[in-house]
Design goal:
By secondary structure, the chain is α/β, with parallel strands linked by helices.
């Protein structure tokens, strides 16, 4: 792409990369890496004709959510009830290819997520463990045999 001075790299990330959540630490860490990598690559390739974009998606209704519930020790995905359709992400990627930008948020309102950690990280630190314990105790109750 660089030799042709043309192309577009689109990395599909998640708001989990900028808003660490309890219970999905490894997932958030991989998305944080993808955000940093995309930004670095974007800056390296500026002016070459090769575009680099990161899509920061909110919760997307995919098999991931079902699989998370079925795994041993698994549970519900944070913000699962706010999930968007995969087609919404695809539509945004098509628009991004026509009008390149460094990053886009899907849906639009998750663009505020990066501000939640610096502004309300202290509250997440206090509430997160409580919510995680509640989720863990709920999954134990669901998986316990009925007498």
């Amino acid at each position: 792409m660089k030799a042709r001075s043309s192309g577009h790299v689109v990395n599909i990330g998640s708001i989990a990369g900028c808003l660490p959540e309890q219970g999905v630490g490894v997932y958030g860490a991989t998305k944080a890496f993808l955000d940093a990598f995309s930004t670095s690559l974007y800056r390296e390739l500026r002016g070459t004709g090769v575009h680099v974009s990161a899509v920061r998606a909110g919760s997307v209704a995919t098999e991931f959510q079902r699989a998370a519930l079925e795994r041993p020790g698994g549970g519900r995905v944070p913000a699962e009830n706010l999930s968007i359709r995969p087609e919404q992400v695809a539509e945004r990627v098509v628009r991004l290819l026509r009008h390149p930008r460094r990053q886009v948020f899907v849906p639009w309102y998750v663009r505020f997520a990066p501000w939640l950690e610096p502004l309300f990280g202290w509250a997440i630190d206090r509430l997160g463990p409580v919510l995680l314990r509640r989720a863990d105790s709920g999954s134990d109750a669901e998986s316990a045999p009925i007498p």
